[in-house]
Every structure is written in C-alpha cells, then in structure tokens.
C-alpha cells in the first residue's frame, strides 16, 4: 500500500487516567439510550486505544491497555489491536460486552483539507472518502475478530472513537445498519463530519437515538469538513460547555455565547483553546464529572 504524506500536528501524549476508584461508573450493556456510565467508559476506551507499542510503532499496545483497564474493572478479558497505514483501532472484550474503539491521528488536519474530502458512494449513501478508506484499512480484521468472539459468547456491542476515530465509528455503524446487524450504541468525541446531508437523514432515521456525539466547547475539528462541501453531522448532539456541563441538543445561540466566553478566557490565559478542547482528556473529564443539564 502506498504511504500517505501528511504534516503532523501536535497531539498530547498519553497519560494514565487518574480518578477516585469509588466513583468509577459501570456500563449498562443493554441500554441503548444516553447513559452516564456508558459515556464514561466509551470515552475511557477511546483514550486507552491511543496507548501504542512504542514511540515508533503506532499499533495499540494490547497488554498495556488491558492492564490499565483491569485496574478499574476486572471484567475486561482481552484487547485485539489493529494498525494499517494511518488507521488504528482495537476490539476490547469485556465479560459482559464488546467494544470497537477507533483511534484519532496526528494527521487529521491534513485529512480535512486534502482531496479525500470528496465523498465516495457506498452502502446507503455518500461518505467522506478519506475516513471511509481509514475504516476499510482496519475493518476486515476487526469484523473477523468480532464474529469469532460472538460465536463463542454473544454479547452487546458498543462503538466509540475520538477525532478521526469518531468518523470511523460513524462508518462502522453505517456498515452494521446496512447489514442489519445489532449494536447497543455509539459514543463519539470530537469527531469531524463524515457523511453527506442526505446520508445523515437516512442514518438518523435508523439510529439517532443510540448514537451520541460529544462536542467540547471550541473543538475546531467538529466543524470540518465544511458544510459548504455538503457534509453533515449525525446522531444525538451533546455539547460540553466551557464549564464542563453537558447539554443535550444545545441551541445555536447558547453555543455561540459559550464559544465567545471560552475563547475570551483562553486569550486572557495567553492560550488558544481550539486545539486544547479537542484533547480526549478534556472529553473524559467532562463525562466523568457528568454535570448533565439536558
């Protein structure tokens, strides 16, 4: 496969997640609606999949990820990592459920601007070509592993991802919808737009109530690719304010005021929060706090 030449942008290095173990929420494997425990663990798994074998090997470090997870929940059984070209993901096995977690990339800025922003037609609509290819790079291995685990012990499936990983989660869910294969729910964090408007309408008619898209304050990645190119977001919208409150389907005026407030605060602190707000750690902190306004 030809390599992709992209300019890297800075991504925060992985830091172990610190918390009070007594506050760790549990997953509700069969709850398709919005759930604080499910949101926390999906953000946690989206973070863990960033753990790599080494500085020069981007493959998910299966042993370290599993060890990290078992510190908080002994029910985790295995981690199956996949890496191909610039795409990485892991199928994480728990005694009570399975989760496919897709990783973001430090090459995302270039993905959003290059020719891959044109769409490709497949399944029941049109999808961002670059995001589609990233999913295709890892999907065969993930799907094979998923079928193997389900044959031995059927369990509910969750899908999650941060950044580019969120866009890949969109397309993975679309594949399952198209094949009429069940999944419990999808949680994404800081994802870009991945489908065209008409495709979004079809997708939302099928599973908006079990797809939860989190957007943190001034996260710039959520605004690309541009609407002018015909792209649209999908799923139920959860907005995280500058005060780390979670708002469901927040209005445009509220988001604008909060955006200005967050931007002014960042300037006063001599920093710009467009990139900082994209960090998975900030998403994880907000869903762990779970100050849900509704």
TrEMBL record:
PANTHER family: ALPHA/BETA-HYDROLASES SUPERFAMILY PROTEIN, FUNGAL LIPASE-LIKE DOMAIN-CONTAINING PROTEIN. One of its GO terms (biological process) is lipid metabolic process. Residues 100-227 form the Fungal lipase-type domain. It holds the Pfam family Lipase_3. Gene3D superfamilies: alpha/beta hydrolase. This is Lipase, class 3.
């Amino acid at each position: 496969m030809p390599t992709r030449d992209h300019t890297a942008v800075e991504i925060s290095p992985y830091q172990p997640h610190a918390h009070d173990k007594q506050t760790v929420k549990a997953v509700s494997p069969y709850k398709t609606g919005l759930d604080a425990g499910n949101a926390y663990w999906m953000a946690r798994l989206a973070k863990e999949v960033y753990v790599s074998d080494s500085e020069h090997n981007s493959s998910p470090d299966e042993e370290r990820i599993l060890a990290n997870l078992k510190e908080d929940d002994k029910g985790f059984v295995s981690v199956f990592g996949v890496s191909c070209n610039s795409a990485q993901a892991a199928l994480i096995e728990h005694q009570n459920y399975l989760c496919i977690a897709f990783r973001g990339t430090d090459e995302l800025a270039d993905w959003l601007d290059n020719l891959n922003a044109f769409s490709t037609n497949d399944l029941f609509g049109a999808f961002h070509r670059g995001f589609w290819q990233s999913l295709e790079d890892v999907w065969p291995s993930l799907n094979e592993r998923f079928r193997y685990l389900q044959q031995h012990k059927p369990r509910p499936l969750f899908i999650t991802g941060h950044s580019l990983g969120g866009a890949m989660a969109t397309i993975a869910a679309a594949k399952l919808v198209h094949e009429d294969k069940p999944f419990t729910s999808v949680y994404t964090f800081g994802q870009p737009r991945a489908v065209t408007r008409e495709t979004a309408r079809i997708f939302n008619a099928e599973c908006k109530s079990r797809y939860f898209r989190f957007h943190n304050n001034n996260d710039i990645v959520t605004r690309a690719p541009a609407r002018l190119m015909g792209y649209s977001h999908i799923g139920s919208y959860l907005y995280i304010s500058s005060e780390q409150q979670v708002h469901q389907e927040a209005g445009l005026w509220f988001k604008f005021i909060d955006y200005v407030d967050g931007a002014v605060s960042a300037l006063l602190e001599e920093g710009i929060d467009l990139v900082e707000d994209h960090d998975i750690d900030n998403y994880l902190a907000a869903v762990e706090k779970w100050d849900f306004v509704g």
